[in-house]
Structure formats: C-alpha cells, structure tokens
Amino acid sequence: MGLGHFGGGVEAARWFARNGAEVTVTDSADEQTLAESLRALQGEPIARFRLGGHREEDFRDAALVVVNPAVRPDNPFLRIACESGTRLTTDIALLMAISRAPIIGVTGSNGKSTVAAMIAAVLRKAGRTTWLGGNIGESLLGRLQLIVPEDWVVLELSSFQLWHLGPNAVMPRIAVVTGCSPNHLDWHPDYADYVAAKQRILLGQARHDWAVLNTHDAEVAAWEPMVRGRLAPLPELDDVPPLAVPGEHNRINAACAAAAAQAAGCPWESIRQGLAEFRALPQRLEPVGTVVGRQFYNDSTSTTPESTVAALRTLQGPVWLLAGGKDKGLDFGDLAAAVVEKALGAAFFGSVRQVLKGWVSVRDPQFSCTAVEAMAEALDWCWTRSRPGETIVLSPGAASSDQFRNFRQRGETFDELIRDLKGKMDS
Predict the structure, then answer these.
(1) pTM of the entire structure?
(2) What single string gives the DSSP state of each residue in 295-324?
C-alpha cells in the first residue's frame, strides 16, 4: 500500500513477488505520478496494480498489507484490513526481522541522515562490510541475500517507520537518538504521539543492546531512565577530530556516531579517521557554486525549523535565505529569531509563506522579507538584492510536498535554477 518514490514500496513488491506471493500494488497516485517506480517493477511477476485509488476488497482479502510508512495510521483502508484480521507490516519491519547482520538504527528530529552516514563511514574505515539504508533513501530488502552475519546494517528510521512497528518487532542492536523536537504534527495527532514513536526504538531493546542518546538535547537526555539496554556514553566534543562538515551541530552528530561505532567494537583510530574523512551528504548545506561573487548552498533536506536555525548559525558572512514549503503545524519562533539575527533578508515560498513572514514580521517589523508562491520567485528576490561576497542558501525548514514530489526534487530544482542563473550571467 503506497508504492511511493523512495524505493521501499518497489523493493517490498519485488521481494514478495519473487518469493512466490500474489502481490497487489495499490496507490492513490496515478500512473504518471508513479512512472519511475513503475518502470522499476517492469518484468516483475506482480499480480495486479491498482492506481489512482484503493479498493476495499483488496484490503479485506489480503493475508498481509505492507504499508508505506507515510500512510497515516487513521487511514480507513488500514482499518478495513485490521477489522478483517489482516496483518500489517512495513518494509523496514521485514528487513529488521529477516536481516542476518546486526542493525544500528538511527532516529531523531534532525541529524539522523548525517549520523547514519557517519556511522557507516566509520564502520567501513574499520574494515566492516556495511549496508546503509532505511529512510536515507535505499531499501535493503533486495540486498538481503548478500547481507551476511559478519556485516553491519545501518538504518535511518523516521517516526513514521517506528510508529508502524508492531509490539514484537525486532529492534536494532544499537539504537541512536540524535534529538527530539516537534515535527510531523500534520501526521501525528500531537507531540506526545511523535515522542512515543521516537522512544519506540529504545523500548523494544533487550538488556544486551546498546543505546546512544544525544545528551546535548534536553528532551532526549531525559529519556535515560527508559533505556532497557546499555547506555553508550558520548565522547566529549573536544575529542571529536576536525571535521570537513561545518557547524557545532555536526560535532554533536559526530559524537553520536563515535559512540555508536565504539559500541559496535570499532577502534578509536578508525573512528577518528572515518569522521575526519566524512563529507557532507547531498543537499545538506551543500555548496553548489558561485555566481558573480555570490556563494550558493543547497540545504533542501532541512524540513524542520531547527535544521534551518543550524544552517544560519553555521554559514559565515552575510546570508540571504530561501525558506518555505508545507506547514506541518510547527512553531517558528526560534527560526524567526535566527532569521532576524543572522540573515540580511529572507524570501518565503510555498503554502507556509505567509505564516513564516508573519513570525518574522512580529519579531522585527522592519526586517527585509517577502512571501511569494514559487521557489524561483524567492531566488529572484534574493538574487536582485544580494551583492558579491554574500551567500544565498535554500534551507526550507518545512516539508516539500506542497509543491514538489519530495525534498530531493526540491533540491534538484534549486540546483537547476542556479545553473540557469549562471548560464545567463556567463552569456
């Protein structure tokens, strides 16, 4: 249910079909929207596709429904399945149950992709065969036959994925929580439900498992009493080696990664080298070029206000900000304060644009900002006001689903706009 765009639905459908199941793929989106995922399933023995809507009988008659984690728990078709005695699962739950290799799970409101990638980099530096997947973008179901007990699997886990895990789900050998602040309140009914989903990664562990908590985050530090496994201490930030990725938040990310790697038995020298050599992931405060003296950064993976605050605090010199997207019901007070303090001006776009502009205007009625519909308009506004030596950054602080398929497409669109701008300036 929910073929989606990130590969989890594709890999689940392929895995079940190749293992002899009669597979129905059902999605409310149409064929054109799902074209890329459908191409990936060409030639696979899929029994039927239901696109552009769901059918009740498919959920009543199924033995198992593999749910895309983005599907809300109150979805009426899931209720039909449950009332019919149909079992629900997700591709992540399947992977964690079947994997022969130990799993390191990483969750958090911010930083989980970077921490997961840092852990994978350190494990590989230590000579461990490592598989990186989950919410970071790649489903590992299709690689299961290649994963052996001596390997390690590192999974980035979202609150959606954790929420859908059943009470008997297999939990990661090492659980990492990078932080917790309000997020996805358009999906979770309230903050307490969101917190409970994040805490699920700890509550399902056994006594011999390890937990890594970012104790620099007050919310997560308070979770220490609920750790059922062993608590792995964070290294001091002064002990973290110099990093190629900037910002205090990345030093904290590296400390979390180091603690997880130590719990996995990696020697400190491998941890130090792996972190020192780590490079930023795509669209995570990624430099994308210079045009007529203006430096551009792509931080499209910023889907929370806290991520944008971190970006503004990390960038040096005068900054112009592009932010906006879909409103997830979050508080933008801290973001507004950081914008007024750190930026020369800001252009807000997408469905949340007026909300963001309102927060900033309350903070400083004289601050230079605008609310426009499209990201291209926001870029044009910042470009015409910027000067050589200044920085323009896309760091949305909100979800992308109001105007883009996902945050990747949003970032790719930004990169394309910068290439077009460079072409015009060079001609």
Answers:
(1) 0.87
(2) EEEE-TT--SHHHHHHHHHHS-S-EEEEEE
